[in-house]
Amino acid sequence: SQRTLVLLKPDAVRRGLIGEIIGRIERKANWTISALELRTLSQDVLEQHYGEHKGKPFYEPLVEFMASGPVVALVVEGERVIEGVRALAGPTDPIAAAPGSIRGDFGTIVRENLIHASDSEESAERELKIFFPSVA
Ligand code: GTP
Ligand code: MG
């Protein structure tokens, strides 16, 4: 089975949506939360995590937003969980995300799109090492 890194972004934490979002993940069959922590991300961690976007116009505001308050970092394990959490989240732009998805139900702003989930097995391995070196 697979493992993925999930972040509930600072907007989700500030708005009291931790339970709502984790509940959706927790209710999926054959998935398990194997690590979970509330933490404020350092510039160093954010630079590693979002390195692929460095130099893009949205990079600086993205990092500032991601450091603006605590996030909830989770490791989720199970059947097709990488594709599965991305499907629960919906597309990056919350206005393009269908109602029923996390971003579609709760978001309006591209930057403040509530959740991060690894987008491939390679990304998951890389990101798990950044956030949970003891688990990875
Ligand atoms: P993550 O799970 O956070 O990685 O989102 P994603 O995989 O759906 O999107 P991507 O990795 O392409 O971009 C990372 C984050 O940068 C997104 O979640 C958005 O918060 C932000 N972002 C991406 N593209 C844009 C953009 O065109 N404009 C702005 N303002 N933010 C963007
Ligand atoms: Mg991404």
Automatic annotation (TrEMBL):
Cofactor(s) annotated in UniProt: Mg(2+)
Catalytic activity entry: a 2'-deoxyribonucleoside 5'-diphosphate + ATP = a 2'-deoxyribonucleoside 5'-triphosphate + ADP; a ribonucleoside 5'-diphosphate + ATP = a ribonucleoside 5'-triphosphate + ADP
SMART domains reported in the protein's UniProt record: NDK
Q: Where in the cell is it found?
A: Cytoplasm
Name all Nucleoside diphosphate kinase-like domain ranges.
1-135
The record's Gene3D superfamilies line, in alphabetical order, gives:
Nucleoside diphosphate kinase-like domain
Q: Which InterPro entries match?
A: NDK-like_dom, NDK-like_dom_sf, Nucleoside_diP_kinase, Nucleoside_diP_kinase_AS
Give the residues annotated as active site: 116
Looking up Pfam families in the UniProt record yields: NDK
Enzyme Commission (EC) number: 2.7.4.6
Keyword Ligase attributed? no
What keyword terms does UniProt attach to this protein? ATP-binding, Cytoplasm, Kinase, Magnesium, Metal-binding, Nucleotide metabolism, Nucleotide-binding, Phosphoprotein, Transferase
Enzyme class, broadest EC rank: transferase
- Superkingdom assignment: Bacteria
The family note in this entry says: Belongs to the NDK family.
Alphabetical list of PANTHER family matching this protein: NUCLEOSIDE DIPHOSPHATE KINASE
Q: What does this protein do?
A: Major role in the synthesis of nucleoside triphosphates other than ATP. The ATP gamma phosphate is transferred to the NDP beta phosphate via a ping-pong mechanism, using a phosphorylated active-site intermediate.
| Name of the protein | Nucleoside diphosphate kinase
Whichever gene encodes this chain, its name is: ndk
